[in-house]
Structures are given as C-alpha cells and as structure tokens.
Amino acid sequence: MADWGILPPIVTAASQFRFALALLAGLLVGCANHGEQLARAEAHFQQNRYRTALSNLEDLEMHRAGLSAGERVRYDIARGMAHLRLEQPLHARYWLALAREEAANDPTALTRAMRDEIERVIVVTDHLAQLNPPSDAAVGDASR
What we know:
The chain has 144 residues and is an all-alpha fold. The protein has six helices and no strands. The protein has one domain: Serine Threonine Protein Phosphatase 5, Tetratricopeptide repeat, CATH 1.25.40. 25% of the residues are buried.
C-alpha cells in the first residue's frame, strides 16, 4: 500500500472522467429501477394483487419526485386505484386528485376514459371526505 503522507495521490483527467462516467451510469440505473418498480406495481394491480401493488408504490414514494411527469401521473393513478380497491376511498381520492392536478397541463397524460373515471371517484368520495376528513398524518401516510 502506498504511503502518500499528507498529500493525496495526483488525480488525472482520465481518472476524473472515469469517475464521472461511473457516477452517471449509477444514476441512470437508479432511474431505470424506479421506472421498473412502477411498472411492477402496475402489473401487480392488473393481476388484482392490490396490497402488493400498494407496497411497491409506498417503497417508491421517496423517489416520486425523481420520476418523469408522466410517471408521476401513472404513480398517482396506480396508488389511488389500489387504495380504492382496498376500500380506502379517502386515500384513493387524495392520490387521484393529485393525478388530475399533475395531468392538467398535459392533455395527453390521461385518456378521456381515465379522466372520467378519476372525476367519478372524486365525486363519489367527496361526500365521504366532508363527513370524515383525513388527518394530515393519514394523508402523509395514505397506506394506513
């Protein structure tokens, strides 16, 4: 093992370039993993495995801001619909309203059928929300 004393080894431009490439590769793999995790959650939902889908989505939540705008809308819809299927209508309303808001600036983010379904769920659950509004803690941890 080399002993450099108090001076660090000389860093070459080539070593800096290799480090930058390795860092970029790691970031790209991380982004791909988040997209893959969202796709897995959607697949679980399609297979009627709502609790598993919700678990995947909860794990992904801390990385939600790093998703693309379209992925965030897909995340919100999947999470809202999973809550709806698990008979958690107030949480479903929260996530579907978020999807509606995020998709407002992009007319291609949602199909007309999906927009109609989101509106239907929000209208149906509005009454429940007025009777029993969720606490801030419940919305922040919408899975419970």
